[in-house]
């Protein structure tokens, strides 16, 4: 996950992830406080319902990157305040 947060995220979004948390049971939460794909949208609540559409692509990028490393995962995203977002990565046991 450190690879995703540092190298992968820097290559794709030109910055490192702001926060990485884990429960040590295969669930990681990646937090980006100024997510690049949401920066152009207004911070108002009227766009909050459309934000998940922009996060679906990034969920696929994370899942694909992990898959190429041989790690099977489920990736979900949530937005509570714009432009911050959280990605939850659940590593699946093989």
TrEMBL record:
A GO BP entry: endoplasmic reticulum to Golgi vesicle-mediated transport
Annotated protein name in UniProt? Trafficking protein particle complex 6B
What subcellular locations does the record give? Golgi apparatus, cis-Golgi network
- Cellular component aspect of the GO annotation: cis-Golgi network; trans-Golgi network; TRAPP complex
What the record says about family reads:
Belongs to the TRAPP small subunits family. BET3 subfamily.
Could you tell me which SUPFAM superfamilies the record lists for this protein? Ligand-binding domain in the NO signalling and Golgi transport
Which InterPro entries does the entry link to? Answer: NO_sig/Golgi_transp_ligand-bd, TRAPP_component, TRAPPC6/Trs33
Naturally occurring in which organism (per UniProt): Apteryx owenii
State where it is primarily located.
Golgi
């Amino acid at each position: 996950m450190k690879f995703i947060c540092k190298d992968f995220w820097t290559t794709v979004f030109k910055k490192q992830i702001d926060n990485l948390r884990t429960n040590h049971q295969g669930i990681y939460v990646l937090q980006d406080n100024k997510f690049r794909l949401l920066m152009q949208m207004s911070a108002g609540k009227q766009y909050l319902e459309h934000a998940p559409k922009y996060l679906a692509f990034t969920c696929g990028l994370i899942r694909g990157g992990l898959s190429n490393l041989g790690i099977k995962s489920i990736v979900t995203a949530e937005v509570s305040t714009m432009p911050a977002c959280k990605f939850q990565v659940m590593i699946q046991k093989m």
